[in-house]
């Protein structure tokens, strides 16, 4: 992975999405997955923003989110590597596109063994070298 695009942090937030998704699906999956990383790591959230007129805005993550893409096999391999390493992940499966709320999303994942999940996205926050190893074979999203 290109070191020029690596943030100057000891850790990375990375999202990996399937390269065969529609653009709206890629954006939707990325948003859901980043919310999982944020929920698991609230310490990564910065302070609220304010403009010169005194309007305040919600805080954002205090570090960049790197978005990668890859084929189905790339996601499967990354998922397996993360599980072997004990790295916490957020996952999004194809079945979740047909659900309407969080309980149905969780049920869609709970009914399938890990090796059989039809992954369309995953996200993680971990030390940079671990993320690089887990996402081996993925490429930065254009």
Question: In a few lines, what is going on in this structure?
Answer:
By secondary structure, the chain is of the alpha+beta class.
Molecular structure report:
The structure is a single chain. The chain is α+β, with helices and mostly antiparallel strands and 142 residues long. The protein has one domain: Bit1, CATH 3.40.1490.10. Helix content is 34%, strand content 23%. The chain contains four helices and seven strands. A five-stranded mixed sheet has the order 5-6-1-4-7, with helices on both faces. Strands 2-3 form a two-stranded antiparallel ribbon. Strand 2 (49-50) and strand 3 (56-57) form a beta hairpin. The longest helix is centred in the first third of the chain and has 18 residues, at 23-40. It is globular and about 50 Å long. The two termini are 14 Å apart. The mean pLDDT is 93. Pfam families: DUF2000. InterPro entries: DUF2000, Pep_tRNA_hydro_II_dom_sf. This is DUF2000 domain-containing protein.
């Amino acid at each position: 992975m290109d070191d020029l695009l690596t943030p100057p942090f000891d850790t990375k937030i990375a999202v990996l999405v399937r390269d065969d998704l529609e653009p709206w699906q890629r954006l939707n999956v990325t948003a859901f997955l980043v919310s999982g990383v944020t929920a698991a790591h609230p310490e990564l959230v910065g302070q609220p923003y304010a403009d010169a007129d005194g309007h305040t805005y919600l805080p954002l993550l205090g570090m960049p989110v790197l978005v990668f893409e890859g084929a189905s096999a790339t996601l499967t391999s990354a998922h397996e590597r993360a599980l072997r390493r004990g790295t916490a992940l957020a996952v999004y499966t194809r079945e979740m596109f047909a659900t309407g709320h969080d309980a149905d999303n969780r049920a869609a994942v709970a009914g399938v063994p890990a090796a059989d999940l039809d992954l369309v996205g995953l996200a993680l926050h971990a030390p940079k070298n671990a993320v690089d190893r887990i996402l081996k074979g993925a490429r930065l999203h254009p």
